[in-house]
Amino acid sequence: MKKTVTALLVMCLLLPISAFGCGQRDGSNGVVNVHNWGEFIDESIFRIFERETGIRVNYSTYETNEALYSLMRRGGANIDVIIPSDYMIARMIEEDMLAELDFTNIPNYSLIDEQYKGLGYDPENRFSVAYMTGTVGIIYNSAMISGEINSWSALLNPDFTGQILMFDNPRDAFGIALKHLGFSLNTTNETEIRHAYELLVQQKPLLQAYVMDQIFDKLESGEAWIGPYYAGDFLIMAENNQDLRFARPHEGTNFFVDAMCIPRDAANKTNAELFINFMTRTDIALMNMEYIMYASANYEAAALFGEELYPEDYKIMFADSEVLANSEVYTHLPRHILELYDELWVELKR
Q1: Which residues contact 64 (CB under 8 A, 6 or more apart)?
Q2: Are 41 and 171 part of one and the same domain?
Q3: Contact yes or no for 131/285 (Cβ under 8 A)
Q4: Do residue 48 and residue 139 come from a single domain?
Q5: Quick one: which of 257, 260, 244 has its CA closest to 327?
Q6: Most buried residue, 60, 178, 267, 306, by most Cβ within 10 Å?
Q7: What is the pLDDT of residues 318-347, one digit of tens each?
Q8: Which of 220, 216, 173 minimizes the C-alpha distance to 198?
């Protein structure tokens, strides 16, 4: 675990087993192939699942929703469970890439907070089970940057030239530019999107690199000073570099829900549903939440985590009503807008 909190573990151990809905070995066998974001699960839980079910977990990772989508379009590479973000789930549903879930194999779905059900990306709750939620912000090194950061404009500051990192995926990169310009993350106005592109062109010579998981090493080591990333990952980085700070810009940001899904052609669908049920169990949700420092969609786990245990971390993990009021959830965009994003992203990265 990234953190060791005796009080939390003792609290969990004192709970009756029925609160966790602990599974028993059911005679199942075979494998389940899980494809997930990097740094987004406590891999020690796989041994628990394998011991309880006899199902072996094959695990692999991806860095962006777009990389996952591209892999799925090429045939899925024998994947049974994926954990995309809200807008990508909507796109995959529209393109018939996901299987409907058999919730008789996922009784722990009842532990998912109602606020994460019936959302726009899966309004009938047929294809997904919410996993973790969070926000995007700016991570910066306070030993290198004086003063408080509170605006996306910090990522355009020429004083930080060569020390700025930027998302290496179009939706997040364009999203930052759009919010800085006062536009919606989900605009379909091509003029606004092209204005965002011009802002990214302006930013490009100031950058050290476009990154995803590489941001961990670069910010923790002090190789770079500032970059946008996800709140939970900041909490992990800050354990290794106490000079790091997290800011949610005043212009607003992205609030996201990542959820567990099964590809339409999954070879091991029942095993995948058993794995999703296991992941949704309270004790396992707690282990994952403490390890990756994102807010679980399991309401019992979220309540057990407790603000009193991590008072500062809690404020970053669990967005309050003021933050949520100033945030947007990405939605699935029309095809012609997605094609425009792709065209402009390729041009930007040349």
Answers
A1: 168, 169, 212
A2: no
A3: no
A4: no
A5: 257
A6: 178
A7: 988 999 999 999 999 999 999 999 999 999
A8: 173
